C-alpha cells in the first residue's frame, strides 16, 4: 500500500517487484551488474559535480533541484539494462 501513496513510491515499488519475479540466469546477472556499474558511475560523477558547483558558486537555492536530478540514477540503470539486454552478449 505504501507504493500506491504517490507516483514516486509507486514507481519504486514496481521497479522492486520487477526483480522479485525476474528470471535469473548468467546473462541477466551480468547485465544487471553492468547496468549497476553505469548507475554507480552516474551517482559518483554527478554528486561530485553538484558538490563542486555549489562550493564554487555558493548558490544553495539550486541544491534541492540538483539532488532531485541525482535520483535519475534509477532511470540510468533501467536504460542501461535495456541496452545490454537488447545487445545480447
Helical element count? Answer: 4
Mean pLDDT level: 77
Low-confidence stretches: none
Number of domains: 1
In terms of structural class, how would the helical and strand content be classed? mainly alpha
Q: What is the global morphology?
A: elongated
User: SSE order, as H and E?
Assistant: HHHH
| Alpha carbon gap, first and last residue | 38 Å
Tally of strands:
0
| Radius of gyration based on Cα positions | 16 Å
Strand content: under 5%
Q: In which range does the helix fraction lie?
A: over 70%
Major sheet characteristics: none
Description:
The protein has 89 residues and is mainly alpha-helical. It has one domain. Helices cover 78% and strands 0% of the residues. The chain contains four helices and no strands. The longest helix is centred in the middle third of the chain and has 32 residues, at 26-57. It is elongated and about 50 Å long. The mean pLDDT is 77.
Give a topology summary.
Blueprint: H1 7-20, H2 26-57, H3 63-70, H4 73-87
Helix pairs in contact: 2-3, 2-4
Features:
mainly alpha; single chain; 78% helix; 4 helices; 89 residues
Question: Could you give a quick summary of the protein structure above?
Answer:
The protein is mostly helical and about 90 residues long.
Amino acid at each position: 500500500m505504501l507504493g500506491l501513496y504517490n507516483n514516486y513510491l509507486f514507481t519504486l515499488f514496481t521497479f522492486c517487484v520487477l526483480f522479485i519475479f525476474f528470471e535469473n540466469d548468467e546473462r541477466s546477472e551480468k547485465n544487471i551488474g553492468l547496468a549497476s556499474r553505469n548507475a554507480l558511475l552516474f551517482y559518483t560523477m554527478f554528486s561530485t559535480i553538484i558538490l563542486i558547483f555549489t562550493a564554487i558558486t555558493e548558490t544553495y537555492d539550486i541544491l534541492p533541484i540538483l539532488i532531485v536530478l541525482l535520483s535519475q540514477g534509477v532511470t540510468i540503470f533501467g536504460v542501461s539494462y535495456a541496452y545490454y539486454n537488447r545487445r545480447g552478449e
